[in-house]
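Running log. JK asked me to keep both predictions on one page so they can be read side by side. First protein, sequence followed by its tokens:
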Amino acid sequence: MFQLSDKGRRVRQMFDDISGRYDLLNRLLSFGIDRRWRRFAVSQLSIPKNGQVLDIATGTCDVALEVAAQTDASVTIVGEDFTQGMLVRGQAKLNSSPYGQRIALVNAPCEEIPHPDNTFDGITIAFGIRNVVDRQAGLNEMFRVLKPGGRVVILEFSNPRSQLFRKIYYFYFQKILPAIGGFLSKRSAYQYLPDSVMEFPDRETFRAMLASAGFSRLQHVDLTFGIATVYVGDKPRGL
């Protein structure tokens, strides 16, 4: 059984602590753009009828619900998260959604996905891969449970390439965002956010990690001046 590291336990506790205000702060701090990013990310999937999708770090189920909205009614979704507080909030949203019956929630870490090999037609993870302590192990697990021919779509914050916009972005991210987050929720969590983004590998390095896990036909698309990036990779057929 996978054992979380001390860092993993701290991150899990942090998200438990902010789960009650998580959706509100996402909309407020991103000016609502996060919804458009998620829609675009999910649109990169191609899920057949009766297919299955795994949404890792599902949180309060925004992406899982978007997958349901964009796919055939026969498609089922598993939302996985290692934070119980987030799943409680997510289940409340599912209970009031017309898509809720198509989505099942599982409490598990990305580094040990509790599903057999070659199970899912698509995998998504939005703003979660940077919180995975052993990212390469998490990517390896995604590759394992994805069917040959299936696709992974990863949405994550990035560092803008434009020096001018990067300065504006860093000021907001490092000064304003933690102050607002601290006023409405827990400041340390919203200080962690910019710190974790700054620490995340650059686009080329992260693509190399995806390739190391076995993914092919890799591509990435920057969104909103490079604030966020969508990474796409396929599991080769015939494996």
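And the second, directly underneath as requested:
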Amino acid sequence: MKQAKSNVKRPGVNSKRLPAVSGAPGEVRVISGKWRGRKLAVLNAEGLRPTTDRVKETLFNWLMHDINGAVVLDCFAGSGSLAIEALSRYAAGATLVERDSALARHLKQNLQKLSCDNATVVNQDCLSLLSAPATQQYSLVFIDPPFRKGLAIPCCQALQQHGWLTDNALIYLETEKELALTEIPAGWRLLKENIAGQLAYRLYQRG
């Protein structure tokens, strides 16, 4: 990857898609739990937009009573920030799905640095994976795809249609704020929602 100006994300700055820059790492910080305060390097890549600390803190306040023991699926893992935060707060385990092979390798390295033995990184296209019959069911799912690529709604539909969710699964969805959500699966109940700059983030529960 070419050298370019640093695009390190700063906590509290509105989320925007970063330009494609290889080999120029930023950082994500674990907010709470057993790895509280740990900082992990993140490779900048096209479409990668780590969730800001402000949004992440709000999300995990929403989830505070549901994290311990959760089985987590991170659908567009990228930096791994959401899944790692959940694992730090004693989720039972996590599967991190990332299509980009360099990012997937880096995720594995960060999990090794944390001595994390209850997470798996899957280097595969998420929609391709989810279009097959489920091999496991998840009680907490993070969906935070690259913006404006038409990935969010098909991901939600595939999770529902192919049996990847437990009966009362919680689903976190982070998208561009203008995205229409008319095709969210029937029976998903909106629990929480908020807007931060250019993004909207929502928590659903499968009914």
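Observation for JK regarding the second prediction: The chain has one domain: 50-206.
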